[in-house]
Design a protein that fits this description.
The protein is mainly alpha-helical. The chain is built from 10 helices and no strands. The longest helix has 25 residues.
């Protein structure tokens, strides 16, 4: 496509190209020069839209969140427990949708206020269920932190679903730790079956929230 027929460059187009490149190269290979090549422009053209790489990562995280919300309709009949489950699973799915997605998302700042609508709805539901506002914030934030942290570790082993890094063979690990039988057996509980482990961990978080704040 020549320059005359190329769509105009804007923040969303750059973020979309960056997310596509992220899946191919990972965070380490995501450079402004590489994104410029993907878009058919010189890297300096991107500085009209993003002052530095962190600003681009912020926009990428925001775009990931937009896509998550679009694919995760919330039911007005949810209990607070159901809402935290939906939120945790939806966020994990969005982060796992991109190589190093959790690392991009962690520590990034949203570039818009799209997150406020869902945040408001979640806090309203939890406060109506009996949580104080500070407790509702802690409950939602803890769910968020658990999910992001889990996926960071998960993607360290499986960068994308179905793709496993070399060196994470559970059987080989067990053989190496044969003199430490419990530690050897723990490998299957750490480095395999991430869907089940996330589900169990999320239920632990939710049960802990209920116990801590005394809300059924």
């Amino acid at each position: 496509m020549n320059a005359r027929n190329r769509p105009p460059l804007d923040r969303k187009r750059v973020a979309d190209a960056a997310l596509k490149l992220l899946d191919e190269t990972g965070l380490e290979g995501l450079t402004l020069s590489a994104i410029g090549r993907e878009l058919g422009v010189k890297a300096p053209a991107l500085y009209w839209h993003f002052k530095d790489k962190q600003a681009l990562l912020d926009e990428m995280a925001t775009e990931m969140y937009r896509r998550m919300v679009a694919q995760m309709p919330l039911s007005p009949t949810d209990t607070w427990r159901e809402r935290l489950r939906t939120y945790g699973h939806g966020l994990r799915g969005a982060l796992r949708g991109h190589r190093d997605g959790a690392r991009v998302f962690s520590g990034s700042r949203f570039t818009g206020i799209e997150h406020a609508e869902q945040m408001e709805e979640n806090l309203r539901l939890l406060t109506a269920a009996g949580f104080t506002l500070p407790q509702a914030v802690r409950a939602t934030t803890t769910t968020y932190l658990y999910t992001v942290g889990f996926v960071i570790e998960e993607q360290g082993v499986e960068p994308l679903p179905g793709e496993r890094r070399e060196g994470y063979d559970v059987g080989e690990r067990a053989r190496m730790l044969a003199d430490f039988p419990l530690a050897a057996a723990a490998g299957a509980e750490i480095f395999a079956d991430y869907d089940r482990h996330f589900e169990e961990g999320l239920e632990l978080v939710i049960a802990g929230i209920a116990t801590r704040y005394g809300v059924d």
